[in-house]
Specification:
It is found in: Secreted, Extracellular space, Apoplast. With 259 residues, this protein is of the alpha+beta class. Helices cover 27% and strands 22% of the residues. It folds into two domains: 56 residues; 130 residues, Jelly Rolls. The chain is globular. It binds 2-acetamido-2-deoxy-beta-D-glucopyranose.
Length: 259
C-alpha cells in the first residue's frame, strides 16, 4: 500500500492497517484488491470516521452478552408483572443483605439418579441480587463414575474448579470440525467451557467428586442434549429423529421412553 502512495499517521490502529495492507498487496488475489479498495475508501474518508467505526464495533462486542448494569444493583422483584430483558428491579430502599445471599453449597447434592450427578445452581433464581450482574455459580456432585451429561449453556461461558476427586471433562467445537477437546482434571485444576459449546464431565475415580462452576450469566440456561432431543414435550416425531440419527425408528422410540 505504501508504494501506491497512501500515507498513514502513526497510530497503533493504522500500523495494523498498514501491516494488513502490505500483506494483501503481497498476496495477489482478486479479493485482496476488493479489500484494498475498502481500506482505501475508509482511509481516504476520514481517520476519525474509521476510529469511530472501530470504537463502535468494540461497543457492540461489549454488549454482545449481558448488558452492563446502569445502577449499583437491580435486585430481582419476582412479584413484578413488568416484562424486561432480565427481571424487574425491586425498590432499592427495600433491599436487604439476604437479597445477595445463599447458604447451602457445603451440602452435597443427591447423586442417586441414572446419570450419577447433581447440580446445585446458584443463579438469579436463588440470589435475586444477581439480576443484571452477569455472573452465577453452581456446585456439582458426582457419584463414582457419574457423569454430568452433554449439555450447553446458551448464555454463558463456564470456568470449573475441581475441589474433590478427578474428572474427565470435554467439549465439542461447532460444525464442521466437531473437534472433541478433553482433559483429566485433578483437585485444584480449572477448566473452561466456551459459551454455547456442548460439554460434559465424568468422575473417573472410585470416590465422590465435587466441582464448583462459575458462569458468565446470572441466568446461563441449560440445554441437556439428550433431554432436549429425546425428551421434548411434546415429543419430536420418531421419523425425524430416526433420519437425524440414522437409526431405526424403534431405537428412537426406545431412547424416547427413557426421558
Ligand atoms: C436421594 O434421591 C433418591 C432418589 O430420588 C431418594 O430415594 C433418596 O431418599 C435421596 N436421598 C437423600 C439423602 O435425600
Amino acid at each position: 500500500m505504501q508504494d501506491e502512495g497512501y500515507s498513514f499517521p502513526s497510530t497503533t490502529i493504522n500500523k495494523k492497517l498498514k501491516k494488513h495492507c502490505q500483506f494483501i498487496s503481497q498476496t495477489k488475489l482478486i479479493s485482496s484488491y476488493i479489500t484494498d479498495f475498502f481500506f482505501f475508501f475508509f482511509i481516504m474518508a476520514n481517520h476519525i470516521v474509521l476510529l469511530s467505526l472501530v470504537a463502535l464495533s468494540f461497543c457492540y462486542l461489549a454488549f454482545a452478552f449481558e448488558p452492563s448494569p446502569l445502577q449499583d444493583f437491580c435486585v430481582a422483584d419476582p412479584t413484578s408483572s413488568a416484562r424486561v430483558n432480565g427481571l424487574a428491579c425491586k425498590n432499592p430502599m427495600t433491599v436487604q443483605a439476604n437479597d445477595f445471599f445463599f447458604s447451602g453449597l457445603h451440602i452435597a447434592g443427591n447423586t442417586s439418579n441414572p446419570v450419577g450427578s447433581r447440580v446445585t445452581p446458584v443463579n438469579v433464581a436463588q440470589i435475586p441480587g444477581l439480576n443484571t450482574l452477569g455472573i452465577s455459580m453452581a456446585r456439582i456432585d458426582y457419584a463414582p463414575w457419574g457423569i454430568n451429561p452433554p449439555h450447553t449453556h446458551p448464555r454463558a461461558s463456564e470456568i470449573l474448579t475441581v475441589v474433590e476427586g478427578s474428572l474427565l471433562v470435554g467439549f465439542v467445537t461447532s460444525n464442521p470440525d466437531n473437534r472433541l477437546i478433553t482433559k483429566v482434571l485433578q483437585k485444584g485444576d480449572v477448566f473452561v467451557f466456551p459459551v454455547g459449546l456442548v460439554h460434559f464431565q465424568q468422575n473417573v475415580g472410585y470416590g465422590n467428586a465435587v466441582a464448583i462452576a462459575s458462569l458468565s450469566s446470572q441466568n446461563p440456561g441449560v440445554i441437556t442434549v439428550a433431554t432436549a432431543v429425546f425428551g421434548s414435550n411434546p415429543a419430536i416425531a420418531g421419523d425425524i429423529l430416526a433420519k437425524a440419527f440414522q437409526v431405526d425408528k424403534k431405537i428412537v422410540e426406545h431412547i424416547q421412553s427413557k426421558f
